[in-house]
């Protein structure tokens, strides 16, 4: 501690001077033990939301510290007596997060500590803070929307801010991901999404911005799936996003499933609405009264409608980009058949399409199966699903679901047709399906393929499939040679585009090739095509695969042939690598003693099971990690919670004669896949 | 009046019997003078919304009648003393709308009149009502969503319910439109949309269901426009639908324009939100804080984003399908440029695309121009627009708008880049545009082309372009001949589909060709292709154009050549007919005395104008039709209201030297197009 920094020396003694009170708050990062304490220094009126502090300090869910913490770090027992002068006491490193509103005030401003015991000028405050050798200082504008990336504005994120003229020599590591996938999966996930410019955080919690790089993936999924269902005779439609409470609540099981998550509009302009109106969490009850009206005869069947739309499920806990969001995009198909067989055939056909979206487009392996009674869709007779697996967390993740609703809704909504036997016979209620695939699929894809360098996007859906980067130009390169390189790059870009390859070329000046490489790796473009002096001379290019960095030399004469091949290869390499991981972490467990250890080993398990709902509950409870005493919140989706059934896979291991349920020991009826899950 | 129908004879005399009170309400239809009175008979607790009554009786905005009306029709002076027994008194026809909840009660139920003066059984009520010779009785389920079509459920709408086995002989007129376009434009519009299965009414007022026939049109528009803007380098994105009030209110002019129409979410599940959250009415304030974050250098410009999404503007008055709805679909483009020139060039480029959507896809002529200061977008520097015209009402209608925002928003949101001159120079605020085209365009198209037989959909956007109908098969037709006809029809359908013509074939049995013709005319399919015995023999088909019924014989050898030609011809015929109407009803008016008469002649007018906002206000007031004393509500969009400026057309009549403003007599600065409008 330098002498001039001692706070007492910088203070003024005029106790009558009018002063602006500053608060100094100490936060503790939630999970990282040994994480640096965070001191927030701000105007009294400045709100200092935890998420902004978290983002500024790259810490997780910071909370106000308790007395012990003050004692440990700042040598003061009573937190209420803490003020800025105690920062000198710290022997370990800590963050100081300074409210930028302070800088906006004039140099002459006089401040006081919260307890009004010490007064000081703005200048001496700055001097003091700068003198704190253990302090890692950030200046934050708390009035701004939280930064998307955990890199703060004071330490400008070069990925978001790449373009200063004098930044050409910037260390390429700086633009990259600063957290490893294996170390802090959740922070890594946020970084690669935001730095890869796929998504940004938004100032309404649980809502996210889909930037072009992710929306383009959604468009690929839409195009593929839309063509598939249109061939089945499905037509697109659009129903309103608002539902009256009366209609929403018509099917009781269904509304019980959704009620806690429904967002309600109660005001328009300054007027209160007569009745609150819900925003659809899904559209069964929105659509089916009209289906009932439109369908009068068996000749009106089948009725097959689909819509691409947004829905809202106001979940309060643990939002996660793509995976668990308050608003999301999806398609929802709603079909009506005169008999159960046709409906059930379609349910499985659609499930196959969903599995193919994962396998053929996103290079993600899934397991198809049926949900248990406990986990099925609210109001369905049965739910089929494709389930994925996230290796780092060992958790299962639901990919998409296709529901057979039977007559549950048709009876509620009187969706019926006359009996073919005549008017005197009872009306026949229709058989229905509903099925949905959402933008969650993009999150699954990102979690599975991406790495410590950033996004890895499978080629069939990537916004850009190839990026051409001119390389090897130095001060010694002649203008002619340089032009030749740039022209060749441009020609390659055009030739690939002519083949319907989504190509782009990076001609930005003031960036080194190394910076560009890192930048495009961050964005996950499948193939980088380097064009340098030697390539030009040899009529070739060097192609580098994003997933494994493998370099290939491709003759320009074979460009149109080789690039699509490399893209295809990469797709299947990604898929096979992911499949290998899923396959090796889907283990058969016949005895309960091996169940929790298998989960803890990041596996999902296949176990013989009795099919009884109470037993499923018990498995969940018994496989939960124990409450660690601090900040424990009960939440189904937290990893600490127990395993739930993911599905009863269609592809079953052979169930031995007399096999017993893994938990209760009663007769097992099948192998069910269990796992901790999202 | 038959003797047994006299109500007094049917009543019971046990005044102590517990009875269910019935209400009897009398409604008067709003506009049609001489329309039949409407008596609603229902349980006390049944809500009887005016829209359901309107739909059941095909009347317009029925309202509770006043004393005079009771006196006139039911010979009782005091409305409060009216009860069921007075129905006998009527000498003119009237509706009785009976609440179907009454039928649900047991035969033994005893009812009383509202005033409890008369008691009677359910059976005697039925007997009584059936005895009223002047009564047109409807039984209505008030708990159901209002019927889409003004045809009630009791008199089943065969368009929605086409398929009873014994209905093959149904009069083809019955399925058609029962109101003429020239007689009641608004009722006609509703009927053709609902009977043509383009749209259905929804139980949240102001929201409508886009059925496949209209959504398919939207998909055509999307495909076309999306390709155009992607060529300009625009990328698609998706921002959340929710906006915090703080962000929404950042730009003051802007929020003033939208505040009264904003829908607010205040609850989720059973919890109140800490702060109400708005649903986007448009996304300027949703997006621009993030633009400000992403754009750091002039190298990040231009930034060109677009989204296809839903927005909500909670207008309280006069919703109209497609034209004025609380939720609608649109695209909104938001672009950022380093200078004003590039931004302004794009604004006009986009406006050209919009005009082409109308002309090239929807066959609708529009006039391009600039909005006046009064009518420009809230927050824009200037707004460009393409304006259409609805001949039947003589009203102008805004087609789509493209706004140059200048630096208005960039200054608010600090969307700036460093000066190219260096860091020491002030930052440069960016120049922005926003532009939007909505599903309103479909409504404009429908209003303009459709006719008394139903929808007429221009071929380039129609869900189906051709419908093949087998004809001429009678009882005498041999099985062989019949098969030949059906096979030929199927082959034609396949051949057209192979040419990417959106074809369908109507093989439904139990419908006569005549019924099918009417049904497909209702739906507006551009070309009907008839295949009959003679056609088969002569290797030809008969093609009938929807717009004018013109028949052409086309040799099967030339099918692939001739059908596209006919479709193209039809497109331009529709366009030219509409253009002729618009051109002949866009009249130049130089003097005020001719202004209102021109408007009253269903014209929009081009007048020399001074450009002053107050003068525009005066024009509006002075051209309003006078309050007729009854039920007069002030509403900008009602036809009775005055003319507003539609745009200052880019194509200007020559303004004479020294021309005076049509209203105030000051110097005119241009010709401005005025009209009553939607």
From TrEMBL, chains A, B:
<dbReference type="InterPro" id="IPR036621">
    <property type="entry name" value="Anticodon-bd_dom_sf"/>
</dbReference>
<keyword id="KW-0030">Aminoacyl-tRNA synthetase</keyword>
<keyword id="KW-0436">Ligase</keyword>
<dbReference type="Pfam" id="PF00587">
    <property type="entry name" value="tRNA-synt_2b"/>
</dbReference>
<feature type="domain" description="Aminoacyl-transfer RNA synthetases class-II family profile">
    <location>
        <begin position="206"/>
        <end position="458"/>
    </location>
</feature>
<dbReference type="GO" id="GO:0005737">
    <property type="term" value="C:cytoplasm"/>
</dbReference>
<dbReference type="Pfam" id="PF03129">
    <property type="entry name" value="HGTP_anticodon"/>
</dbReference>
<dbReference type="GO" id="GO:0004827">
    <property type="term" value="F:proline-tRNA ligase activity"/>
</dbReference>
<keyword id="KW-0067">ATP-binding</keyword>
<dbReference type="GO" id="GO:0005524">
    <property type="term" value="F:ATP binding"/>
</dbReference>
<dbReference type="InterPro" id="IPR002316">
    <property type="entry name" value="Pro-tRNA-ligase_IIa"/>
</dbReference>
<comment type="similarity">
    <text>Belongs to the class-II aminoacyl-tRNA synthetase family.</text>
</comment>
<dbReference type="InterPro" id="IPR004499">
    <property type="entry name" value="Pro-tRNA-ligase_IIa_arc-type"/>
</dbReference>
<dbReference type="GO" id="GO:0006433">
    <property type="term" value="P:prolyl-tRNA aminoacylation"/>
</dbReference>
<dbReference type="InterPro" id="IPR002314">
    <property type="entry name" value="aa-tRNA-synt_IIb"/>
</dbReference>
<dbReference type="InterPro" id="IPR017449">
    <property type="entry name" value="Pro-tRNA_synth_II"/>
</dbReference>
<dbReference type="InterPro" id="IPR045864">
    <property type="entry name" value="aa-tRNA-synth_II/BPL/LPL"/>
</dbReference>
<keyword id="KW-0648">Protein biosynthesis</keyword>
<dbReference type="InterPro" id="IPR004154">
    <property type="entry name" value="Anticodon-bd"/>
</dbReference>
<dbReference type="InterPro" id="IPR033721">
    <property type="entry name" value="ProRS_core_arch_euk"/>
</dbReference>
<protein>
    <recommendedName>
        <fullName>proline--tRNA ligase</fullName>
        <ecNumber>6.1.1.15</ecNumber>
    </recommendedName>
</protein>
<dbReference type="InterPro" id="IPR036754">
    <property type="entry name" value="YbaK/aa-tRNA-synt-asso_dom_sf"/>
</dbReference>
<keyword id="KW-0547">Nucleotide-binding</keyword>
<dbReference type="InterPro" id="IPR006195">
    <property type="entry name" value="aa-tRNA-synth_II"/>
</dbReference>
<dbReference type="Pfam" id="PF09180">
    <property type="entry name" value="ProRS-C_1"/>
</dbReference>
<dbReference type="GO" id="GO:0017101">
    <property type="term" value="C:aminoacyl-tRNA synthetase multienzyme complex"/>
</dbReference>
<dbReference type="GO" id="GO:0002161">
    <property type="term" value="F:aminoacyl-tRNA deacylase activity"/>
</dbReference>
<dbReference type="InterPro" id="IPR016061">
    <property type="entry name" value="Pro-tRNA_ligase_II_C"/>
</dbReference>
């Amino acid at each position: 501690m330098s002498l001039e920094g001692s706070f007492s020396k910088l203070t003024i003694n005029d106790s009558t001077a009018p002063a602006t009170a500053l608060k100094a708050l100490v936060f503790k990062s939630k999970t990282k033990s040994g994480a640096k304490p965070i001191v927030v220094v701000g105007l009294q009126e400045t709100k200092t939301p935890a998420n902004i502090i978290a983002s500024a300090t790259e810490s997780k869910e910071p909370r106000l510290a308790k007395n012990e913490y003050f004692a440990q770090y700042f040598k003061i027992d009573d937190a209420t007596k803490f003020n800025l002068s105690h920062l000198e006491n710290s022997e370990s490193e800590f963050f100081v997060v300074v409210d930028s509103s302070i800088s906006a005030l004039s140099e002459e401003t006089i401040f006081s500590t919260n307890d009004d015991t010490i007064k000081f000028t703005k200048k001496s405050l700055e001097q003091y803070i700068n003198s704190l050798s253990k302090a890692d200082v950030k200046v934050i504008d708390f009035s701004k929307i939280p930064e998307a990336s955990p890199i703060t504005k004071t330490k400008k994120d070069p990925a978001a801010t790449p373009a200063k003229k004098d930044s050409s020599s910037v260390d390429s590591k700086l633009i990259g991901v600063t957290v490893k996938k294996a170390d802090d999966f959740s922070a890594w996930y946020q970084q690669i999404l935001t730095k890869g410019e796929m998504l940004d955080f938004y100032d309404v919690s649980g809502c996210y911005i889909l930037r072009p790089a992710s929306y383009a993936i959604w468009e690929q999924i839409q195009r593929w799936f839309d063509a598939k269902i249109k061939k089945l005779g499905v037509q697109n439609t659009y129903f309103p996003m608002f539902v009256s409470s009366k209609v929403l609540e018509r099917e009781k099981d269904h509304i019980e499933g959704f009620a806690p998550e429904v967002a309600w509009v109660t005001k328009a302009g300054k007027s209160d609405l007569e009745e609150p109106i819900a925003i659809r969490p899904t559209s069964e009850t929105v659509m089916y009264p009209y289906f009932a009206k439109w369908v009068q005869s068996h000749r009106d069947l089948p009725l097959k409608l689909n819509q691409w739309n947004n829905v809202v499920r106001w979940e309060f806990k643990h939002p996660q980009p793509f995976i668990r969001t308050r608003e999301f995009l999806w398609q929802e198909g709603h079909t009506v058949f005169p008999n159960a067989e046709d409906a059930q055939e379609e349910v499985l056909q659609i499930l196959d399409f969903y599995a193919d979206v994962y396998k053929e487009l996103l290079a993600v392996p899934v397991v198809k199966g049926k949900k248990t009674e406990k986990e099925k869709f609210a109001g369905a007779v049965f739910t089929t699903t494709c389930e994925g697996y996230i290796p780092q967390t060992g958790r299962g993740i639901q990919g998409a679901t296709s529901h057979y609703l039977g007559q549950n809704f048709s009876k509620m909504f009187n969706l019926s047709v006359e009996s073919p036997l005549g008017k005197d016979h009872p009306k026949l209620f229709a058989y229905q399906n509903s099925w949905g695939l959402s933008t969650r699929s993009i999150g699954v894809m990102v979690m599975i393929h991406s790495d410590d360098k950033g996004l890895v996007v499978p080629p069939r859906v990537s916004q850009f499939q190839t990026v051409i980067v001119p390389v090897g130009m130095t001060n010694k390169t002649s203008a002619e040679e340089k032009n030749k390189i740039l022209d060749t790059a441009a020609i390659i870009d055009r030739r690939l585009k002519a083949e319907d390859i989504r190509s782009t070329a990076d001609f930005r000046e003031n960036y080194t090739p190394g910076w560009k490489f890192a930048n495009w790796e961050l964005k996950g473009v499948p193939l980088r095509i380097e064009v340098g002096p030697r390539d030009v001379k040899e009529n070739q290019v060097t192609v580098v695969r994003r997933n494994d960095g493998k370099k290939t030399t491709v003759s320009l004469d074979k460009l149109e042939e080789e690039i699509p091949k490399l893209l295809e290869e990469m797709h299947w390499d990604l898929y096979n690598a992911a499949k290998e991981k899923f396959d090796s972490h889907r283990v058969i467990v016949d005895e309960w003693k091996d169940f929790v250890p298998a989960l803890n080993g990041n596996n999902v398990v296949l176990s013989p099971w009795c099919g009884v709902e109470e037993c499923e509950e018990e498995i969940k409870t018994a496989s939960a990690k124990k409450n660690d005493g601090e900040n424990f919140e009960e939440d189904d989706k937290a990893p600490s919670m127990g395993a739930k059934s993911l599905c009863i896979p269609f592809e079953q291991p052979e169930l031995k004669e007399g096999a017993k349920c893994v938990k209760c020991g009663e007769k097992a009826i099948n192998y069910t896949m269990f796992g901790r899950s999202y």
